Amino acid sequence: ELKSFTRMLGGDPSCSSAAEEDLLASGALGDGGARAPALGKLEVSSDSEEASEVPEWLKEGEYVTVGTNKMGIVRYIGPTDFQEGTWVGVELDLPSGKNDGSIGGKQYFKCNPGYGLLVRPGRVRRAAGAGRRRSAGLRLQGGPQTRRG
């Protein structure tokens, strides 16, 4: 112990590893190290379970926001071959996606290249712009009718 203390005072570059060895030997880091992976596994499984839950409103054809600014229509909800759990396939309004609805040679849904995105349900929100988009369409259709009537 005195040797380790002397190394710390002397600025010996190996002092940190000596201190870690002392802590490992005492079990201080050993227990923490054993707990950390267990907690990590629990966090990962709870995150993936939570992220895989599909809200009742989330259906194919629903207009959604992915992340903070990508918007599109849900084209697929279900399992994939590339990873366990439930995934949501979205055909984006703009070409900011990663695929054409297929990954690894399997087609989950169809869209133009660069418009497709597969994400966990937790990353998808009902789009606030859905009402705006629909009402914009109604305005375009309803505008001339109003003038005619």
Automatic annotation (TrEMBL):
A Pfam family name for this chain?
A: CAP_GLY
Annotated region (Disordered) at: 126-149
Q: Which Gene3D superfamilies match?
A: CAP Gly-rich-like domain
What taxonomic ancestry is recorded? Eukaryota, Metazoa, Chordata, Craniata, Vertebrata
Taking every annotated instance into account, which residue ranges of this chain make up the domain CAP-Gly?
A: 78-120
> Bias regions of kind Basic residues — which residues?
126-136
UniProt protein name: Kinesin family member 13B
